[in-house]
Amino acid sequence: MSLLIPVDSNRRHEALLTTLDALEYWAFVELNEGQIENCKFYKDKDEINAFIETVVVQNDQEYVWQFQQENASVLVAPTQRSIDEIVEAYLFSELHELKR
Question: CA 45 to CA 24: how far, in whole Å?
Answer without folding.
Answer: 11
